[in-house]
Amino acid sequence: xxxxxxxxxxxxxxxxxxxxxxxxxxxxxxxxxxxxxxxxxxxxxxxxxxxxxxxxxxxxxxxxxxxxxxxxxxxxxxxxxxxxxxxxxxxxxxxxxxxxxxxxxxxxxxxxxx
Length: 114
Description:
about 30% helix; about 45% strand; globular; alpha+beta
C-alpha cells in the first residue's frame, strides 16, 4: 500500500512538472514587454493606434499553428495617458501573418493584420 501511494505521489509530481503541449504558459515579464513593444511599434507604422507599454499585468504564450500571445496591460497613448487593454497577438507560422486584437477600456475593439 505504501508503495502505491509513493508511486501516485511521484506520478503527480512528474505530471505537474511538465507543461502540456499546446497549453498556455505564463511569460517572462521581460519577454512579454519585448513582444508587446515590437508589436506596438509595427502597428503604429501601419496607421494603427500609437501606444507604448505601461505596465503588463498578465502575459501568456501558447503554441498553436504558430504562437498566440495574450496580455493584459496598461498602454500609454500619445498624451501619456494610461489605457487598460487586453491584447491578443496571433502569429501564424505557415503564412507569416500576424493578427493583433486590442480590446481597450472605453475604446472598443481594434483589429489589424500584417
